[in-house]
Amino acid sequence: MLVEPPFVSSNQWNKNFVASQRVLKLICCDAGYVMQPLFAAFKHIIITSGTLSLDLYPKLLQFHPLVAKSICIDRNSHLCPVVVSRGNDQGRMTVTNAMEVPDTKPSSSLSAKSDVKLSSKYTLRANNQVAVSYGSLLVEMARVVPDGIICFFTSYSHISNPFLIWNRCLFLCEWDAHGVIRDIYNYKLLYIESRDINESNVAVQNYRKSCDEGKGAVLLCVVRGHISEGVHFNDHYGRCCILMGVPFLNTLSKELNQKCEYLRYQYDVDKNDYQICDAIRQSAQCVGRTIRNKNDYSFVIFADYRYDLVDHSSRLPEWIQQQLPPAHHNLSVEMAVITARTFFKKMARHDADTQPRTLTVETLPRYIYERGLYSV
């Protein structure tokens, strides 16, 4: 239970009036209460997921699993994740005239300092070099990626309408000032998710139409938003997925602090571990928006240097970790572009390695035996 003070106070109001404006909030700090009726009604329960943590969620749901195992049925060669932790290795950030850029180098007119780390940390949000580096990454991906690009941000404040006075836009203002939006329109159309569900549905519909009839589009979304929760981008609608930052919850939220304090006292769950697990789970869920069937392939970019940390990368699902070799860590924007070119050229060929596996009655026993599911 949380009691919030009145949003607006004045010296002219008496104390009784101010006290009547307080808000009483009920917070569900223990998700195990929801699961207890299920555990009591059924003898055997199987919980499957592609994003949940095996060590944390049994504590949160108050049960002791008899069998807890992470199974990756098959290596998905159609997924190519990389971690981009810095901008282009091109010296200081400059903005050049688009007419002066030679035709032999069709890259973006932006260049960023190589020593600036890409991150969505609160202390770096006001750094315009970080914003421009993210913009340079998106422009380069729009130049080399076919069809659709899904770009996830950590907050609506990054992609709010910069032309509204009461909105404090963090990225779009810098992108508009440095010509990033102009450069994106040279390659693809741009659509932005809104807080309004109807406007977001219209943006998704137009995005799909652009991918069907044109050279593709870019859709800017928000983690934990309407699009990331229930919209699928299969086939050519999601050839590239970019996560610009680690989607941590607001650490200043009173509801979050109350819940973390309860979990620490009741189940000895550290606040930092809970926030990291939740952020990585949300990131994996966004990646799953682009891989919906066996024919899908997608190039995934984790654009934040914190994804290189052990406590972050080790919590990624196994189906992502298997495709994330050490060579794909700590990349710059240029190195990510080269990796993307190689990946899409490989997927364009109809080789046996790039074709989805088809299991038949004859091949199924051999398939199970190779993975050690049972011994003959």
TrEMBL record:
Q: Upper lineage ranks? A: Eukaryota, Sar, Stramenopiles, Bigyra, Opalozoa
Q: What is this protein called?
A: ATP-dependent helicase C-terminal domain-containing protein
Q: Which InterPro entries match?
A: ATP-dep_Helicase_C (IPR006555), DinG/Rad3-like (IPR045028), P-loop_NTPase (IPR027417), RAD3/XPD (IPR001945)
One family name in Pfam for this protein: Helicase_C_2
Q: Which residues form the ATP-dependent helicase C-terminal domain?
A: 167-309
Species of origin: Blastocystis hominis
What GO molecular function annotations does the UniProt record carry, in alphabetical order?
A: ATP binding; damaged DNA binding; DNA helicase activity; hydrolase activity, acting on acid anhydrides, in phosphorus-containing anhydrides
Tell me the Gene Ontology biological-process terms attached to this UniProt entry. nucleotide-excision repair; positive regulation of mitotic recombination; transcription by RNA polymerase II
Name one cellular component (GO) term: nucleus
What the entry lists under PANTHER family is as follows: DNA REPAIR DEAD HELICASE RAD3/XP-D SUBFAMILY MEMBER, GENERAL TRANSCRIPTION AND DNA REPAIR FACTOR IIH HELICASE SUBUNIT XPD
